[in-house]
Design goal:
The protein is built from 14 helices and 21 strands. Bound molecules: iron/sulfur cluster (SF4).
Length: 469
């Protein structure tokens, strides 16, 4: 049994990150373990988790399991969890309870959790104490060891717990079962070293470590050869790409190299304002296939709170960057993340946040009430903003965010925009504009997977409606 260790997860040293290309092995004994059996994977949280689930599914299918989208029919259930907020935790423990009931009628079911909650000491201790009906706990660093852990859990009928808490390495050649035939997630880096005081990610995802450019470019080229229309370059803080490599090669260089593969659409998430370079802005403006959409989390508009959060920029620096992006990238849409009710946040601090929203007029914002994560510095701060005030502020903030989201969407009425129609809907197709606006089109499915010119005929706060030109 290897349990997570928070102190180990906090460590960062100068050891060179290893890039491992042949770690994923599946031996013959294990290949047929899943024959005639079904698996169900439920994913919580961010795009990184969604992409990890694509790896997990491919590994399970290498073991001859077949996917079902209904937990009750499954022989193997995995929850790929998120640790970012308390409500994500609660949802997962609720699901673990449901699995217990299911196992009472189907005792041979194998069930487990993985992802960021599995990297938390407190969670694994609770599982070992109260949720002994689970068979498997593994983390974000050892997905490739799933075949061994699963076969041990099946043969030994004992819970297998294996969570690595070190800095992590870069693993290449892990199989992937992509959810879409038109859009693909492409990891460019893992982990984060920013240690924002409220964030659990540096402890659950390890040290900031970049994939080698050639591995990323090869992956994108392979997707181009399979006629993929869009890639999203993934990382917790993509702007820091390459800083850990002994190469003079930055995110701006990577974006340019990916643009030259001629993939029709390129996106990237998530950015940290601190590492957003002028070179990146110039490259985004230069290439038509790099989408004019930037997700730029600000978190708070108050310099005092930004300091307490450890965000390393001031609102003035953020606005300078925001203006550069708006001035240099035509039609760019900008979205953000905002936390209200951070410890010691005053009405004035909150007003500073509202002032930023009035200035930036964001296309969309993900807004949250502060949620203390065990082990982070902010969890040791006195959580002295009342729940009433937190709710009040979130309400006020969302009112302004909704107002500008609609205002920005109204600019599209009557306009013709390019939309990648990648999702089937009841009587039509849906997809996103280059600026990440969700669009529904009343049409038959012949255009599925294509980028089409769409004239916008109707506007809502969070979505648009249109017809194919
Ligand atoms: S940059 Fe993002 S992922 Fe990294 S610690 Fe800060 S909030 Fe978390």
């Amino acid at each position: 049994m290897l349990k997570p260790n928070l102190n180990e997860a906090k460590q960062r040293n100068r050891e060179k990150i290893l890039v491992k290309t042949n770690e994923y092995i599946i031996n013959d004994q294990i290949k047929d373990i899943g024959l005639g059996k079904k698996y169900f994977v439920k994913t919580y949280g961010c795009q990184m988790n969604e992409h990890d689930t694509e790896n997990i599914k491919a590994i399970l299918e290498d073991m001859s399991y077949e996917e079902v989208d209904n937990m009750e029919e499954a022989d193997l259930i995995l929850l790929n969890t998120c640790a970012i907020r308390e409500n994500a935790h609660n949802k997962v423990f609720g699901m673990i309870g449901r699995i217990k009931t299911l196992k009472e009628s189907k005792p041979d079911i194998i069930a487990g959790i993985c992802g960021c909650m599995a990297q938390e000491e407190k969670v694994v201790d609770e599982i070992l104490k109260k949720y002994r009906h689970l068979d498997l706990v593994f983390g974000t660093h050892n997905i490739i060891n799933l075949p061994n852990l699963l076969s041990k859990a099946i043969t030994s009928k004992e819970m297998q717990v294996e969570v690595l808490s070190g800095q992590g390495s870069v693993l290449e050649n892990i199989p992937v079962k992509r959810d879409s035939k038109y859009k693909a997630w492409v990891n460019i880096m893992y982990g984060c070293d920013k240690f924002c005081t409220y964030c659990i990610v540096p402890y659950t995802r390890g040290k900031q470590r970049s994939r080698l450019p050639e591995h990323i470019i090869d992956e994108v080229k392979e997707l181009v050869s399979k006629n993929y229309q869009e890639v999203t370059l993934l990382g917790q803080n993509v702007n820091a790409y390459g800083k850990d490599l002994d190469l003079e090669y930055t995110m701006a260089n990577l974006l340019e190299s990916v643009a030259k593969t001629n993939i029709p659409r390129i996106r990237f998430v998530t950015s940290h304002p601190w590492d957003f370079s002028d070179e990146m802005i110039d490259i985004i403006a230069k290439y038509d296939n790099i989408m004019p959409y930037i997700h730029l989390p600000i978190q708070s508009g108050s310099n005092r709170i930004l300091k307490l959060m450890g965000r390393r920029y001031t609102k003035e620096e953020y606005l300078t960057l925001f203006d550069k992006i708006k001035n240099k990238i035509p039609n760019v849409s900008v979205t953000t993340d905002i936390i209200v009710g951070f410890p010691n946040e005053t009405e004035q601090d909150f007003q500073d946040t509202l002032d930023i929203v009035e200035y930036c007029k964001y296309d969309l914002a993900y807004t949250f009430i502060f949620s203390a994560r065990e082990g982070t510095p902010a969890a040791k701060m006195e959580d002295n903003v009342s729940l009433e005030d937190k709710k009040q502020r979130l309400y006020k903030l969302n009112e302004r965010i909704n107002y500008y989201a609609k205002e920005n969407n109204l600019k599209y009425l009557g306009k013709t925009v390019k939309v990648l129609l990648d999702k089937k809907e009841k009587n039509g197709l849906s997809g996103y504009t280059e600026t990440m606006k969700s669009v529904y089109v009343d049409t038959d499915h012949q255009y599925l997977g294509q980028i089409k010119e769409v004239e916008i005929t109707d506007v809502r706060t969070w979505s648009l409606k249109g017809k194919i030109k």
